[in-house]
Amino acid sequence: MSQKQIALACSVCGSRNYTVAANPNRTTRLEVKKYCKHCNKHTIHRETR
């Protein structure tokens, strides 16, 4: 059985660079500081639905 995947989108350019496994127990959207290859810097990436 495969896990459901969600995308992480850059808050600056909106590019969806990363995917992570969905967690049904999480009530708020995940926010992680990650590297964006389009912006060429570390930015906040937010969970998209």
Automatic annotation (TrEMBL):
Q: InterPro entries given for it?
A: Ribosomal_bL33 (IPR001705), Ribosomal_bL33_sf (IPR038584), Ribosomal_zn-bd (IPR011332)
- Identify one Gene Ontology CC term for this UniProt entry: ribosome
Instruction: Fetch the Gene3D superfamilies from UniProt.
Output: Ribosomal protein L33
Spell out the SUPFAM superfamilies in the cross-references. Zn-binding ribosomal proteins
What are the entry keywords? Answer: Ribonucleoprotein, Ribosomal protein
In terms of NCBIfam families, this protein maps to: PRK00504.1 (NF001764), PRK00595.1 (NF001860), rpmG_bact (TIGR01023)
Annotated family: Belongs to the bacterial ribosomal protein bL33 family.
Task: Identify this protein by name.
Answer: Large ribosomal subunit protein bL33
Gene encoding the protein: rpmG
